[in-house]
Amino acid sequence: MLKTTAMLLQELSTYANPMAKIRRMVHDGEIHSVVRGLYETDPGQRGYLLSQAIYGPSYLSFEYALAWHDWIPEAVRVYTCATCGKGKKKRYETTFGVFTYRDVPAGAFAYGVDLRQEDGYGYLLATPEKALCDLIYTVSPLKNRAGLRRLLFEDLRVDEQVFVQSKLNDMAEMASLYHTENHRLLAGLIREVIRHEQRD
Q1: Domain boundaries, the chain
Q2: Close Cβ partners of 48 (under 8 Å, ≥ 6 residues apart)
Q3: Is residue 200 very low, low, confident or very high in pLDDT (cuts 50, 70, 90)?
């Protein structure tokens, strides 16, 4: 269970020195520091359940979400999260894993994100279509659709058949919220795929 310093101080208010008691609880392994002001009672807790509590508002996206949805073959060891309006990247190295946070446009932030529940924890996870839109937002501007194809299917190793069978219209709609050249190219690629599928 996650607990903040404020929660623990309330629980330990009968102690003469509640902060000293918190330090002893950490030392004795009763609670485990996640980041400053945040503790977890379960030392084996899965990191993705903690990601929103560490820094927010945020949701799991980018490479982590693409791997979760089996869009890319590599396992991703870092919990990659999207934020908005923060203006800078954040990285936290904790005993529960490494967490990174980077901005996406505010206008795109709330779309394509699912709320999931597990073991009494709630966490937010991007759909694969949203995670891909978020990821190409972080990439330097591409020159053409061929460059986008190389990025997606060679560099990232996105499964092309999975891409073709995804929610293409949803992805195109989300791509329009980013207002970048990369997303304009993505929308063009989606139209090309849809035309090809309609001919078959």
Answers
A1: 2-43, 48-199
A2: 60, 64, 79, 123, 125
A3: low
